[in-house]
């Protein structure tokens, strides 16, 4: 068993090159991420909210999200990076959020500089808190975390005040104690390259679909100086498309026989769970 802390494991991985972290919205998906050979996993606030049947506007509680962290970090066995939205409140709650996320098994979290209720980072109409208030949140989070835990500060300034403002905020948040900066909503490779050069240090890139960022490959992100790339809702989008398609077919045909070839078999599920009927099962 690896005795290194989750944060140390993540830092070691990033020291070897850019790390891909697919989003997992359930523990079973977390196991699948591990089975596929990835070395880190991401928990999206949006995907977690969607799984609960609500939109990504900060409705879930700290307790609800910590349960998801525990389930996915244990099931996957991977360093887990987690969305903390706006920190569930002001400075006092930000401190508690860091402590509770670490206790739940997270390797890293990111805080964002939006006004609550927040919006998805690739939607328009966002509003930001002032740089000084966000820096205070970052500073409080830095004081509350362990040495290994990776504190990520996200700025949504690109879509509101422009790239230069995002760079300025990124620098301020790094000075306030953030280990890594997450510039959200950049619109081109050129912008990612410009941000990397102007805000040196650990950087996170969000490679989401249907947003403002064009498709950029993992290695290209690495070449531009990014250390971690998240794919927040990709697997949920794939899964839900399959679910809605199958439900329509079941409703129409009255049988699942016609899409059996698209179903995970019982044996595949058991292999993913590490379960053999009749044999005592051991959790991670």
Describe this structure in words.
The protein has 284 residues and is α/β, with parallel strands linked by helices. The protein has a single domain, classed as Phosphoenolpyruvate-binding domains (TIM Barrel). Helices cover 46% and strands 12% of the residues. It has 12 helices and 8 strands. It has an 8-stranded parallel β-sheet with strand order 1-8-7-6-5-4-3-2, sandwiched between helices. Helix 2 runs parallel beside helix 4, helix 5 packs across helix 6 and helix 6 runs parallel beside helix 8. The longest helix has 20 residues.
What's the helix and strand layout?
Blueprint: H1 6-16, E1 19-22, H2 27-35, E2 41-43, H3 45-51, H4 62-76, E3 80-83, H5 91-104, E4 108-112, H6 131-144, E5 150-155, H7 158-161, H8 163-176, E6 180-183, H9 189-198, E7 202-206, H10 218-223, E8 228-231, H11 234-253, H12 266-273
Parallel strand pairs: 1-8, 2-3, 3-4, 4-5, 5-6, 6-7, 7-8
Helix pairs in contact: 2-4, 4-5, 5-6, 6-8
